[in-house]
Amino acid sequence: MTSTAISGARMLSVGTALPDKVVTNHDLEQMVDTSHQWIVERSGIHERRIGGSTSGLAAEAAQMAIERSGVDPASIDLLILATTSPDRQVPATASTVQELLGLRCGAMDLNAACSGFVYGLIAAHGFIQMGHSRILVIGAETLSRLTDWTDRSTCILFADGAGAAIIEKTDGPGDLHGWHVDSNGALEEALFCDFDDKIQMAGQAIFKNAVLAMENAARKSLEMANLSPDAIDLVVPHQANVRIVEASCKRLGIPYEKASMVIHKTGNTSSASIPLALEDAWTQGRVNKGDNLLLVGFGAGMTSAAAVITWDGI
Ligand code: ACO
């Protein structure tokens, strides 16, 4: 694969964490005027996990990624925590996670909503080009804290979880061949959450723009990687709605069967959803050395991000 993109780093391992508590669509039927059938038809969600703290879930996912990688935690230079639901306004939840893991390194939060993990992954490759050796990138959320459980238009979607990855310097060209980040602040009112309030969402506006944003970010990153869509072995999309992923795949000309989907069991976990879907595919043996992966997401802001990587991890 030829590439003009930044390089010199690879994703080594992934780890995840989900709260124990399962909330099914049937549970939600007892809380708001909805039905299992409506939720499945409109979103693809069957159940979701609720509970824990953003820092606790992040640390659990990170611990799994660290153990799988075999790296010495003392060699980690930086912790990037993508989250839109930090434990506190100050300090950054990344610092709390760092303490839970016993790391001594740089630590920062990154908020690009559901695109956050891919933003963090791309930023990590940049930090490694500037001299860092190992970076822990986490996406973690407790969206249940920001959800109005009496609002049927949002409470059926959002949930909690975390996913993490170790990014390591490599002698070769690295795994990142194309990337793209974007934001359209004009769409801010389509999805927002004010301080001490709950998420407000214009679902249809998000839906329409999400499909276009996913396609655009994916095409730009494929172009940078000099790859056609049919060279992609696995799509790892943000898990917001099965129909959004189906429509995006169709527009890109990539069979939906190539997408890793976990939304049926996780709901929308924002910045955690892409690493959760990646780890699920890895666990199932769907991610092998040399495979071309397209990680692509969109979120409030309205942000979008995509990365084309060749899997060179464990
Ligand atoms: N159960 C039953 N009926 C419902 C529910 C529900 N939970 N919610 C809404 N309805 C009703 C509406 O009131 C409406 O009724 P009406 O026709 O009598 O007015 C009808 O169902 C259709 O509602 P729509 O909003 O048109 O339904 P739609 O097909 O658009 O699906 C959904 C709604 C699932 C929210 C969809 O629009 C969507 O997924 N949008 C994207 C949301 C998203 O991805 N958000 C996350 C962004 S990422 C981030 O940053 C966190």
Describe the structure.
- Helix 3 packs across helix 4 and helix 7 runs parallel beside helix 8 (242-252).
- The protein has two domains: 9-169, Peroxisomal Thiolase, Chain A, domain 1 (3-Layer(aba) Sandwich), CATH 3.40.47.10; 176-310, 3-Layer(aba) Sandwich (Peroxisomal Thiolase, Chain A, domain 1), CATH 3.40.47.10.
- The strands form four sheets. Strands 1-7-6-4-5 form a five-stranded mixed beta sheet, sandwiched between helices. A four-stranded mixed beta sheet has the order 8-13-12-11, sandwiched between helices.
- The protein is globular and about 55 Å long.
- It has helices spanning 25-29, 36-43, 54-69, 93-101, 116-129, 152-155, 203-225, 242-252, 263-266, 273-283, and strands spanning 9-17, 21-24, 47-50, 78-82, 106-110, 134-142, 160-169, 176-183, 191-192, 200-201, 234-237, 292-299, 303-310.
- The chain has ten helices and 13 strands.
- It is of the alpha/beta class and 314 residues long.
- Bound molecules: acetyl coenzyme *A (ACO).
Tell me briefly what this model is.
The protein has 314 residues and is α/β, with parallel strands linked by helices. The chain contains ten helices and 13 strands.
Structural topology:
Blueprint: E1 9-17, E2 21-24, H1 25-29, H2 36-43, E3 47-50, H3 54-69, E4 78-82, H4 93-101, E5 106-110, H5 116-129, E6 134-142, H6 152-155, E7 160-169, E8 176-183, E9 191-192, E10 200-201, H7 203-225, E11 234-237, H8 242-252, H9 263-266, H10 273-283, E12 292-299, E13 303-310
Parallel strand pairs: 4-5, 4-6, 11-12
Antiparallel strand pairs: 1-7, 2-3, 6-7, 8-13, 9-10, 12-13
Helix pairs in contact: 3-4, 7-8
